[in-house]
Amino acid sequence: GQQVMQIPQYQHVQEGEDFTTYCNSSTTLSNIQWYKQRPGGHPVFLIQLVKSGEVKKQKRLTFQFGEAKKNSSLHITATQTTDVGTYFCAGPNGGSNYKLTFGKGTLLTVNP
Amino acid sequence: DGGITQSPKYLFRKEGQNVTLSCEQNLNHDAMYWYRQDPGQGLRLIYYSQIVNDFQKGDIAEGYSVSREKKESFPLTVTSAQKNPTAFYLCASLQSPGQAISNQPQHFGDGTRLSIL
């Protein structure tokens, strides 16, 4: 079945350093979504990418969708303590239009 | 999200007991979902429902049951057949008036933490 892999599983940075998490799918995706889950909280939708090679920015966050639409990345510039949390990517499950397959997430911790 | 209410926040289950987790949404969303989250794991789909009176098994449905008698409610029962129920359970919804999920974000509740006594 479809798999969505995320690396790294954990990342610890000093405040002000950059951070990147990568997402790879075993199949071509029609789109990819990114979510953030704060410790003890629930996932919150960040963004959706649809087009091949698409790049979107939200303040210090930059999201990219690969040309082949099988991979994606989230880059945070100059991390802050408020960036702490787990970042998940998710893609439509190939067998259904109503299901998402989530990656296992990358847990980001930031040392102030 | 304020529009999805999960209760209780914490729940303890005794051996051989069935427990029901509540999920209510006032967003007028058509589709609802139940996920299980274990430490260091992503979200795994238990059940989902596209419309009232219809639901489908997800990837890990064994030991769980659901109902969808009302649009706003999608309760999950963790049965005694689920031998390892300790996890964080998340309910989600999205508005899907005939559209594929791929075009819409999911809205999550605050979750229920289930533990075994």
Question: Whole-number average pLDDT of chain B?
Answer: 90
The number of helical segments of chain B is 0
Query: What is the strand content of chain B?
Result: 35-45%
Order of helices and strands of chain A: EEEEEEEEEEE
Characterize the biggest β-sheet of chain A.
6 strands, mixed
Q: How far apart lie the N and C ends of chain B? A: 29 Å
According to DSSP, the number of beta strands of chain A is 11
Q: C-alpha Rg of chain A, in Å?
A: 13 Å
- Judging from the principal axes of the Cα atoms, what is the shape of chain A? globular
Q: Say how many strands of chain B there are.
A: 11
Q: Tell me which protein chains meet in the greatest interface and how many residues each side has.
A: A-B, 23 and 26 residues
Specify the oligomeric state.
heterodimer
Q: Rg of chain B from C-alpha positions?
A: 13 Å
Strand content of chain A: over 45%
Commentary on this structure:
The complex is a heterodimer of chains A (112) and B (117). Chain A has 112 residues and is mainly beta. Helices cover 0% and strands 54% of the residues of chain A. Chain A has no helices and 11 strands. In chain A, strands 2, 4, 5, 9, 10 and 11 form a 6-stranded mixed beta sheet that branches. In chain A, strand 7 (61-65) and strand 8 (71-76) form a beta hairpin. Chain A starts with a strand and ends with a strand. Chain B is mainly beta. Chain B is globular. In chain B, 39% of the residues are buried. Chain B has no helices and 11 strands. The chains are: A mainly beta (112), B mainly beta (117). Chain A binds chain B through residues 4, 6, 9, 30-31, 33, 41-45, 48, 88, 90, 92, 97-100, 102-105, and chain B through 1, 31, 35, 40-45, 48, 50, 56, 58, 90, 96, 100-103, 105-111.
